Amino acid sequence: DAGVTQSPTHLIKTRGQQVTLRCSPKSGHDTVSWYQQALGQGPQFIFQYYEEEERQRGNFPDRFSGHQFPNYSSELNVNALLLGDSALYLCASSRGLAGLSTDTQYFGPGTRLTVL
Amino acid sequence: LAKTTQPISMDSYEGQEVNITCSHNNIATNDYITWYQQFPSQGPRFIIQGYKTKVTNEVASLFIPADRKSSTLSLPRVSLSDTAVYYCLVGGMNTGFQKLVFGTGTRLLVSP
Asked: What's the rounded Cα separation, in Å, for the pair B6 and A116?
């Protein structure tokens, strides 16, 4: 049973560029959440997708956008990269329970993004 | 979501029992308590979750007093590989789509 997978593992971009990160949820999970973790800090919630729609959003600018596909996989897009976007980006999956709540979230290994 | 307070760091030796306490004074009636473990450059790993009293699994135990304003994660006989950051989170299971709110966690260092 495959867990949550993310790609790529590492990524280096320059300021102003755009980046797309990918996530495949754990088997049986239909809800995907994205988190940003700066060095030395706890993960910060970006947004959550269920049934291909954004259901909740944290305090992140519109430069951060996402998408969920019919197979439940998800993408995180960040436009106009800033130096401060350098972080570990984590994807977590869970089961949406009748669209009302979500089960325990399981995290992937993350994508390390470095913006130069 | 309820805010949590944990010690910033703890030190222990191999073979000892480690107890990490988390305060969550304004926990809501439908909030659960969840603990995650995170190693450097890896995603957090779910350890244990509970609502009240005591929960035990193959990895840890979670003790929750009657007033639920705090909880204690107990790691029996730690090893060097238990060196990690441990996060305590509280949140409702039936309050809509759940976002996890992480604090800065507790850095546990296990020495030989």
From this structure: 34
| Chain B contact set for A104 (CB, 8 A) | 34, 46, 49
Indicate yes or no: CB of B44 within 8 angstroms of CB of A55.
no
Would the pLDDT of B95 be above 60?
A: no
Report which residue type is found at A30. D
Residue length, chain B?
Answer: 112
Q: Tens digits of per-residue pLDDT, A32-69?
A: 999 999 998 999 999 999 889 998 899 999 999 999 99
Report whether pLDDT(A78) > 90: yes
Residue with tokens 């998408």: A67
Residue A60 forms contact with B (CB below 8 Å):
no
Instruction: Judge contact between B106 and B18, C-beta under 8 A.
Output: no
Residue B82, classed as helix, strand or coil, is helix
Yes or no: say if B1 and B63 are a contact pair by the CB < 8 Å rule.
no
